[in-house]
Fold this sequence. Notes:
Elements (H helix, E strand, L loop, with lengths): L2 H20 L7 H4 L1 H20 L4 H8 L1 H14 L4 H19 L3 H24 L6 H9 L3 H13 L1 H31 L2 H45 L2
Helix pairs in contact: 1-3, 1-6, 1-7, 1-8, 1-11, 3-4, 5-6, 6-7, 7-10, 9-11, 10-11
Amino acid sequence: MSITATGISTGETTRAALAETATTPETAGARPSFLPLIVDVAVPVGSYYLLKNGFGMSTMAALGWSSVVPAVRTVWSVAKERKVNALAGLILLVNLVGLALSLVAGDPRLMLAKDSGVSSVVGIGVLVSVRLGRPMMTQAMKPFLVKGDAAKSAAWDRLASGSEPFRKAERTFSLVWGTVLLGECVARVVGAYTLPIDTMVWLGTVVMIASMVLAFLLSGRFAVVPMEKMLERELAAGAGTHR
């Protein structure tokens, strides 16, 4: 298994999918919302292995070419929306810096640490957004809770503007993800320089997957579920006032 493939197959591509979800209109259906995940995961991973194992390219060359599609897609998304999305911008920075470091990194331990170190920018960015009172992950979560329903969207807006518990849950969602991502990155960097390289090649992926599962579970328990219940109550209250 390639050292570089560890970073491509899970961390950066998953975060890129979240960035694209944040730019997807709420009226879009569930099926289109998963297209970025397919593009960011299937294309880079598949092309990496095809170019490296099928066509005999070097690790660096395969990484470079397999990063073209998600990088172009991110740039196109920003250009199409004609506005800078904070999370999408962070993902683009991660891709560009990660590729640059991969091209100059000759040390395998540095290559292992590189993906974690650069990806930590995302976690730090999310935590900073919470501190600034504008939780970055809210836009990535809202479409999945609202599901294109106008009544739910209106209920969300009312709660976001007038409910402190709702806003706290918003902040909690981003806080959980930012903390877990940053913690995962620190753990992988430490492991890259303290454990055998062969061990970290597979262990890095295990840590990544475990971190994602932990973030989903914690953010669901302490943010998504409470927000769903508040939305349901707000919808019920709104329906009652129109009778």
